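Request: Show me your protein:
***
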Amino acid sequence: MSIITQAITSADREARYLNVEELNSIRDFYEGGQNRLRIAAVLSTHERQIVQKGSQTFWERCPVTPSNSGNRTFQASCMRDQGWYVRLVTYAIVVGDIEPIEKSGIKGAKEMYISLGVPLRNLVECMRCLKEAALDLLSLDDVDEVAPYFDYIIQGMKP
């Protein structure tokens, strides 16, 4: 739930106006909006590069894996999924909250990968590789903004 939704929900539940702290939090959220949009644009623009670099790093670390079996269709679907996760991270950055990741159904995605026989430890390592590739494009300040969203996905996919 975004800072704005949290503040309004809390105030409404207590039948009161927003307090100064809540208003300041909302102001800070809006003031940081340009920065969040800039970071999301960097990741969106470089999504293909992030996926390619992340996949390459993953295959170097885990050479014996279904996505590196030589089956081009399977490899392409794995890379498509990786792009989807990068996109989810950009959505979360824009709204400044994990809600888009939660709503995507990380638990359901985890169950799907289990049913497909995808080793979760490989999926977790792949997400780490995507995170590294994405963070390599960013400044240290931007890394602090982005890393927690990848970490949330990684934690959600752990076996």
Observations:
- The two ends are 26 Å apart (CA to CA).
- Residues 1-31 form one domain.
- The chain has two domains: 1-31, 33-157.
